[in-house]
Amino acid sequence: MRAGVQHLTLLSITGTTYGGEEKNQRNLSEQNVSSSREKEKSRSKGVQHSRSIQSHSLRPLDEKVKEMKDKVIRAKAYLSFAPPGSNSHFVKEIKLRIKELERAMGDVTKDFRLSRRAIQKMKAMDTTLLKASRIYPDGSAMVNTLRAMTYSAEEQLRSQRDQTSFLIQLAARTTPKGLHCLSMRLTTEYFALQPEERELPNKYKLQDPHLYHFAVFSDNVLACSVVVNSTVSTARELEKIVFHIVTDSLNLPAMSMWFLMNPPGKATIQIQSIDNFEWLSTKYNEDQQKKKGLDPRYVSALNHLRFYLPDIFPFLNKIVFLDHDVVVKKDLTRLLHINIKGKVNGAVETCVEGEAPFRRMDMFINFTDPSVAKRFDANTCTWAFGMNIFDLQEWRKRNLTARYHKYLELGSKRPLLKAGSLPIGWMTFYKHTQALDRTWHLVGLGYDSGVTQAEIEQAAVVHYDGVMKPWLDIGIQKYKPYWKKHVNYEHPYMQQCNLHE
C-alpha cells in the first residue's frame, strides 16, 4: 500500500475499524485499556496526546466523590456495630444519612457533576459520623480496617478488569486463523483465473443513479458476505440493487473471488481497491499522519474513507453506507425513498439517556477548547455510524469533505477529540443530519448483552459495534445466530479452513 494511503486514517471508534481491529464509539475495553496503558513507560507521544483528551471526560473518580463513598463505607461499618434488630434513634439516623447520601451521589463520578444537595448531605453525614465515633469509641480502628479491606478489594477488582479488557482487546485485534486461511485459498484461486474470468457482471449498472446503491468498506471477506447476503435476503427488487465494496490491494483478490464464486443473485456487485484512488493521497495531509504514533487498530485507510463518498461515487445522488459488522433484517430499499428534509446524513440518534448506546458529544470531543465550545452545542443529539443514508448531491453543495479536513487538521494541532471516526463525523455533519426512526438501526450487539430480542426483531439493521464481533470467539453468543444465519458453512473452503458453526 502506498505511504499516502497507508497513513490515511487518523481516528477510529465505536463503530468499526478493519483488519480484525475495531472502532465505538464507548467500547467496554477502550476506556479500561486506555487507563492500563497510561501506566506503560514506553507509550508513544501519539498515545499521550490522546490521553490528554480522555482525561477531560474519563479521568478516575474525583476526590470529593471518593470522600463521599468513604463516608458511606464508614457509616455502614458503624451501623454493623448496632445490636441486631435495634431500632434506636441513632440507627434510624445513620440509615437515613446513608440513604440520603447514596441517593444524592447517584452514579456521579466527577466532582463538577455533584449537586449542591450532595454536598449538604455529606455535611449532615459528617455530623452523624462524629456522633457514631462517640457512641462507639473502640470502633474507629475496626472502621479503618474495614475501609482498608474495601479499598484493597476494589483495587484488585480494578486490576482484574483491566487485565480482562486488555485480553479482550488483544483477541479483537487478532485475525482468526480460519479467516486468514479462507483469504489465502480465495487469493490462490483468483490468480489461477484468466484476466477475462476475473470480471464481475453488470458493469453498466454501477453508475446508474436510478438504482439502489449500497457501500461497504472492509477487508473482511466473510463479514462482507454476510452484509450482502442479509441485504439480498430481505430486498424486493434485487435487479435494482448495486453493492460497492472497497477493500485494500491485499484483500482485493480474495474479495473478488468470493463474489465470483458466490454471486448475490440478480443484484450487482463491484469490488474496488482503495489503492486505485490516486486522488486520495493528494486530498489528505500525509505529513500530519506521519507525526501520529497511533494504535495499530486505527491506521486503516478504510475507516475514514466514508468521508470521501461523493468523490468515490461522482455519478451517484444517494447511497446507503453499511459497516461490515451489520446484519440487515428488513428491506433497505425503502430507506432510499425517505425524505431527509434537505439534510446530508440520515442516521439513528444515540442520545437517549439511560439506554446502552447513550453518547454525548462531550464524551468524545474536548469542549474545554474555546474553538469547540464556540462552534458546537454539547447538548446536540448524537447519532450512530454504520447504517446511514447520504444525499451526495447535498454533500457536494455544502463541501462537507473540506469541513472534515478542517477539523482533522485542527485535531492534529491540539487535543480536540478522541481517536475515532465517530466524533469527527458528529463535527462534520453537525446540523446536517436528519434523525431516522430508531427501528432502522439497532446498535450494541458487540458490547451490550442487555439488548432484548424484541428490539432485535423490530430493527431493520442490527449492528455488532464494539470489540465482540460475531466472527470472533469473544462475540456475545446469544447474538451470533442472527449473523451465522447468513454464512454458508457448507462451502468447501469454509470446511477446509475449519470454519464451522
How does this structure look, described?
The chain is α/β, with parallel strands linked by helices and 501 residues long. It is built from 21 helices and ten strands. The strands form two sheets. Strands 3-2-1-4-7-6-8 form a seven-stranded mixed β-sheet. A three-stranded mixed β-sheet has the order 5-10-9. It starts with a helix and ends in a 5-residue tail after the last helix. Pathway: Glycan metabolism; pectin biosynthesis. Pfam families: GAUT_1, Glyco_transf_8. Its EC number is 2.4.1.-.
Strand content: 5-15%
Mean pLDDT: 81
* Residue runs with pLDDT of under 50 for 5 or more positions: 1-60, 285-299
What's the total number of strands? 10
Number of helices: 21
Assign a percent range to the helix content: 40-55%
Structural class: alpha/beta
Gap from first CA to last CA: 34 Å
Rg, Å, rounded? 26 Å
Strand order of the largest sheet: 3-2-1-4-7-6-8
Principal-axis shape:
elongated
